[in-house]
Design goal:
six-stranded mixed sheet; alpha/beta; 8 helices; 2 domains
Length: 386
Amino acid sequence: MRVLHTADWHIGKKLGRIDRSSEFEAAIDEITAIAKDQKVDLTIVAGDLLDRSLPSLDSIGLVVDALIRLADASGRVVAMPGNHDSPQLFEVLARLLEPRGVMLVPRIARPESGGLLTVPSRDGTHAASVGVFPFLHEAQVVDFMAESEEWFKGYAQRIRLISAALCDAFDPKCVGFLVGHYFVDGAEVGGGERQIHLGQQYAATAQAIPPGASYVALGHIHRPQEIQGAAVRARYSGSILQLDFSERTHNKEVVIVEALPGRPAQVKSIQLSAGRRLLRVEDELEGLRARADEFKDAYLDVRVKTSGPVLGLADEVRSFLPNAVAVQAVYERSMDPLRVVTDTEQTIAEMYSEFHRSTRGHSVEAPPELIDVLKALEEEVLHEAS
């Protein structure tokens, strides 16, 4: 079995006010071409196909079209919701897309009730047992584990038990794949992930990945990487575009996996080239003006060295750097005893999440809908910032 592993499309996500639909379409074109060129038997999409649980119709249409095209290119597609996706939407789409070779698993389920899929290879000589593990909310109780007293021993234990239940049900004559959308403690985060779904309350350990699979296809973390310390090959494929400036150093990729029953998987990465670069640049105003041609094909986070606040700075910068998403002056600031010192890389949404936990109890998270609104507002403010 030859499998293409991708995840974290986040279709519909904007950069400030910039609509990136054409870039997402280009990335899907590239992934589809890779699936054809590599002659894969199956494409796995490990969650977060959409950026919001209430996406636009255009975003839904782009995802549906992408899944159908990938199924045509690779025979079958297996996909599931991540923490950004709506399980209810996936339930509706599952019935519509199944005849096109797209197998959606909207919710965590027992192996015999839809949690385990059997997918034949194109030539019919082999088959894959695919255990599908959609995102598990920290407070969620999964029915097929509810009878176990082990349930209450923490999130990592729940990840281990559910993963083991899926892998134990693999057909020994098939190649076993586990697909999951969760954070493994120790993985290097990209910065663009939803912070309220990271941290110890949402962390599994490498030991939670059972040894029964030939390969574990993971989603949720945007930086592509192998899981260290796992009993089998396990990997985050990462996001398909540089989604925000915290991902500006990432090289994006898909993963090609080749495996036979009872043999270790062979894994390779194929780099993606779609999408504009994201760059953070810092210089004096005239230095930036002189270097404008260097940055014409990139979206920019611009830091302008000044002696103090400059009225109309953002408009001035965008007059020669039209792709400047964020512009801010950088200068020596006097100490203000009333100013709260924060991590400059921390977003307002992240700071509010910490404030909410500190005032409501550390186990009480801010409503995801409120966090989404704060993120959208901050992106608009950054776009207009001077």
